[in-house]
Design brief:
heterodimer, A: alpha/beta, D-Maltodextrin-Binding Protein, domain 2, 2 domains, 51% helix, B: 229 residues, mainly alpha, MetI-like fold, 0% strand
């Protein structure tokens, strides 16, 4: 009934080849996947991820904590927070203080720590058609809008609800424009993409865009873009990255994930990693892509910058109000030492 | 522009030739994930195809129509639905399949099931009715007859399997949304191409694209070659 024809043999061969292929694949897969390890998922922003910094942090963290395997999911800040709210990530590493506060208030996150900072800049074509070089961000936005309406300039917005997009909306607001109105205009383009993709679009269109300095330097050095920095760093363009752990749930395994998240936050603010932030990109770009915040605070240099940071990214004078802390007070002790002393002195005086 | 493209291809060839371990592991993971997806879809797809081709019942046309319509299901749509289902706060969250390779495999297997069903059932149906009748007159049982018909349509079924594997291997939506493109865990060829392009690492993207295309084309080529001999 089933003759041993040539095609049957070939069918057998094909089957064997496929099985070998699958076997080979699964062998390497199970070799690389660490089944016994605790798995920590961090949802984070494209601006951090695309520079490659997190790959270095992963290696370092797993060296220090061999029992934990850390994975990064790179999304815009808006989606990153969503992912954590759904319980699909154990912690977030993002840059939008307003939405971070909401995340804490809604009861999803605890133990927020400010980790690093850099600045946003306005990148644009070298001939600067809107003539905004050297202006303040709000002035520049106003002039770009005016030039846009006369068809001599184009603005590209991230348009993806990311931290960068949030900052851009805030600057439009500070310049007293409504971004929902702006987006209907011809000179205002929405990329709806990550930072590098948005920069490339801006470059193609000879337009202006808001970009964090890390992504700008990275793409400029790679030859992806020819845009120049038209408006440089200032108080209004400060960009602050914070880490927040998900609230531990009373389900199986979650407390383990919470502990791993806390270890990762401790790791981010540790001396060694703060130094990594400072060194990352220095050799390639001449300056760091991300500046360590804890180091800045400890050194006490640049009090004006520290003040800016706290104006922007602190809630009620602290990086994490006490009602949003959970078994994490120790994270804040070093930094609050001076504050506590100041309070004691004040009490004495009263 | 042309020069950068040549330069990128040059870098890509070097990258492939030097056997970069990460490129290698991403490729193997892609083969594994989509291979498993193909295996799973055959598990339920081939019996459905057989049932559709060899028996007649009410509603058969409806089922056929359903699978034919599902041939064109957008991968992002399927990815989004699976993302919501598999999320920890979704109905299937307890299985913890989101952001795992197995999750991608299951998603891709659903994606390609219509291909397996439609292609395989057409192949089986196209076998000459004479084969069936001959087998019956030679005294074969119902099961033996079915085996004979299947045997005659072997190549058609293999083609259906290869086509579905290629589709799974080359799709992006499910792998990205269900897998999350986590390095060393769920990063496959298509998701790394998307990421490296977004990152501006064009040479790396081209290298991965070349690998993707070589595998898809050579698979089709091998099957065609075997079929002729």
């Amino acid at each position: 009934m089933f003759p041993q024809s040539k095609s049957t043999k070939l069918f057998l061969i094909a089957t064997i080849v496929i099985i070998i292929l699958i076997g080979l694949g699964s062998y390497t897969y199970f070799n690389t996947k660490i089944t016994t390890k605790q798995h920590l998922i961090v949802s984070t922003t494209t601006s951090l991820y695309e520079t490659g910094l997190l790959d270095i942090l992963k290696v370092e963290f797993e060296k220090q904590h061999p029992s934990i395997n850390v994975s990064f999911i790179s999304q815009g800040t808006g989606l990153a927070i969503q992912t954590a709210m759904r319980g699909d990530a154990d912690m977030i590493l993002v840059h939008d203080p307003a939405r971070e506060l909401k995340f804490l208030q809604d009861g999803y996150g605890v133990n927020r720590k400010v980790v690093a900072y850099n600045f946003f800049v306005i990148a644009g074509p070298s001939n600067d058609p809107a003539n905004v070089r050297g202006l303040s961000p709000t002035e520049a936005f106003t002039k770009i809008k005016e030039a846009g309406e006369m068809n001599s300039a184009i603005w590209v917005s991230r348009g993806d609800d990311s931290g960068t997009h949030a900052k851009e909306k805030r600057i439009w607001k500070a310049a007293e424009f409504d971004d929902t109105e702006l987006r209907t205009m011809d000179w205002y383009l929405e990329a709806g993409a990550g930072m590098t993709a948005t920069l490339r679009l801006t470059d193609e269109k000879n337009a202006y865009t808001l970009v964090d300095i890390g992504s700008y330097l990275n793409n400029y050095a790679n030859g992806n873009i020819k845009l120049e920095i038209i408006v440089d760093a200032g108080k209004d363009t400060l960009n602050v990255y914070s880490a927040i752990a998900n609230v531990p749930k009373k389900t199986e395994g979650s407390s383990l994930n919470f502990n791993a998240s806390m270890k990762f936050i401790e790791f981010l603010v540790s001396d060694g990693v703060q130094q990594i932030f400072l060194d990352f990109g220095k050799d390639k770009f001449g300056k760091p892509l991300f500046n360590p915040y804890v180091k800045l605070l400890e050194s006490g240099d640049k009090p004006e910058l520290i003040q800016w940071m706290q104006d922007l990214a602190y809630f009620n004078g602290t990086e994490c109000p006490s009602q949003y802390r959970y078994e994490g007070d120790y994270l804040y002790q070093i930094i609050h030492k001076e504050l506590i002393i100041a309070h004691i002195v004040l009490d004495f005086q009263h | 522009m042309f020069e950068t493209f040549i330069e990128a291809i040059h870098q890509a060839i070097i990258l492939i030739w030097s056997g970069d371990p990460e490129v290698f592991s991403i490729t193997l993971r892609s083969l594994y994930v989509s291979g498993l997806a193909t295996l799973l879809s055959c598990l339920w797809g081939l019996p459905i195809a057989l049932g559709l081709a060899l028996s007649s019942f009410r509603g058969k046309k409806l089922i056929r129509g359903f699978f034919n319509a599902m041939l064109g299901v957008p991968t992002v749509a399927l990815g989004l639905i699976l993302y919501l289902l598999l999320s920890k706060s979704g109905p299937l969250g307890i299985f913890r399949l989101l952001y795992t390779p197995l999750g991608i495999s299951i998603g891709q297997s659903l994606l390609i099931t219509p291909i397996v069903v439609s292609f395989a059932s057409s192949a089986i149906e196209s076998v000459d009715v004479g084969v069936r009748d001959l087998a019956r007159t030679l005294g074969a049982s119902r099961f033996q007859t079915d085996l004979a018909v299947m045997h005659e349509s072997t190549w058609g079924i293999i083609l259906a399997i290869v086509a579905s594997f290629s589709r799974a291997f080359a799709e992006l939506g499910v792998a990205m949304m269900v897998g999350g493109n986590i390095r060393y865990v769920t990063r496959v060829l298509t998701t790394s191409i998307a990421l490296e392009t977004a990152r501006g690492e064009i040479a790396f993207s081209i290298a991965l694209t070349i690998i993707l295309m070589i595998i898809v084309f050579s698979l089709t080529f091998i099957i065609n070659f075997l079929r002729r001999t």
